[in-house]
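Final report, Chapter 2: Outcomes

The project's central promise was a pipeline that accepts a single protein chain and returns its three-dimensional structure in a standardized token representation, suitable for archiving and comparison. That pipeline is now operational. To close this chapter, we reproduce one record exactly as it appears in the project archive, with the input sequence first and the structure output second.
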Amino acid sequence: GVDKKVDTIYLGGGTPSLFDPADLSRILEAVRSRFACAGAAAPSSGARAASTSGARAAGTEVTLEADPETITPEKAAEWLAAGINRVSLGAQSFHDAELKAAGRMHRRDDIFSSIERLRSTGFANISLDLIAGLPHQTASSWQDSLEEALRLRPEHISIYLFEVDEGSRLGRELLAAGTRYSAAAVPTDDAMADSYEFACERLNRAGYDHYEISNWALPGFRSRHNLKYWRRDPYLGFGAGAHSFDGRWRWANAHDPAAYAAAIEQGRLPVEQLEEVTARQALDEELFLGLRQLEGIDLARIQAQYGAQFNAEIGARFEELRAQGLVECSGSRVRLAPARLAVSNEVFVALLE
């Protein structure tokens, strides 16, 4: 209801920038009519207390995911007028051969022109996604992509490692050790790790705050929305396939758009999956999601909150990880060792097995 305070709205999944801007505006108006949303958002603070307050004077962060080739000056102006104040741009790479192999529709020039359009319209908060490990990517081309991104100076940068869907053409070809569909041109795991480590060093020198394994921000521009997930804050998802969490329950809407629409029209909740989160699951999430943040976790707080669930075995695992140099401890605070972020999955597997 209107007493529920909202400090972040995220329009994402698929390519919402293809929507008619008038429809996006209607969606946002519907949210504002049912929830207490502050005005236009200022850049988010890096401090935990500031970035999690639902009633911040800074206002609501409203993000739109967009593909570069879908952005026009007219759309950008209508987005801004509708209250969208942050755009997350799926750049992926600045090399056309890599973009083509990844099946992307845009090219390098589209990234530059789209950001120019957003800036000229008045957008002061832009996030750029890059992917390390795309087919045909080399150490040199990866470094070029990073430098191109830094030339554009987005307020936020996300870097993800290339993941192959085993059911895709490329995935099946890789499993069969074939060469079609650019399978032979996919970098090795070691090469991807090297690319990630290079990015960590380069973005740090460029003044970006590395606050989560895959995310960097200029001071004051951390993604408020993503922090909700990593801190297990409640969130509501609307639309086909959207997920929600209220602190105790997780649920997912029907994935089929027709089934979702039919449920709404019939006055039924379109929920397809519903799960109560157990205390042990919640603890595992605290550890896994908390350690993704470079500030780490406060073990004393977690132990006090979860009591018997946080047993001696978990404490022993942390001590073993510390001895291996995978985590660092300062008092009750534990964080991933900055030099070992590329192998963070080893930590998560050890904790959650």
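Archive annotation: The domain at 5-230 is CATH 3.30.750.200 (Transcription Regulator spoIIAA).
This record, like all others produced under the grant, will remain available to the consortium after the project formally closes.
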